[in-house]
Amino acid sequence: MTIRDITQPLHDGTPMWPGDTAFAAERTWAYGPECPVNVSRFTASTHAGTHADAPMHYDPEGRAIDVVGLDVYIGPARVIDLRGCGLVVTPDMVAPHLDAAPPRILFRTYDRFPHDAWIDAFTSVAAETIALLASRGVVLIGIDGPSLDPQESKTMDAHLAVKAAGMAILEGLVLDDVPADDYELIALPMKLAGLDAAPVRAVLRDLV
Fold first, then answer.
1. Which pTM does this prediction carry?
2. In angstroms, rounded to a whole number, what is the distance separating the alpha carbons of residues 52 and 171?
3. What mean pLDDT do residues 123-133 have?
4. Of 11, 57, 97, 159, which residue is the catalytic one?
């Protein structure tokens, strides 16, 4: 069974949302004559790399990432290839891909994922598209971009549409070389108590 890793590697220089905490790591103990192990430490934003947003990220009354249900992050998912769609994913772009769709939808918008540079003009998702997905029973939406909303958004329309629908969010997926198809998604967030998001190790497995 093929396992496709769709997770960003985290390293010094990983592109981050402007103004957010940069990822940094250092060795604190080094293997050698006086030490039998290597040990490191790192600092990072909760939204570093491939991550799951918790409801409290966009809702002051929302749940933290350590208490969200995990079942939504495991199960059948559809990758929809929307490369070339422009700056906003609209309902008319998505509707033709929803016949018999599973309850998790992942959007590919990049030709190649920008591992080494922050791209301001990434593709966002219209609130109306979220509503369409909700009407089809979708419980999780994922995207290869860093956010469902545009970088300069102050209204967070897509996130609030997700709130209204009770969906889960994955952002920063790496969908290069993943054909548009149905898979099993496994993308469990770290159990960070009381926090607004968490990195995930996301993989897709071929359905059997």
1. 0.96
2. 6
3. 98
4. 57
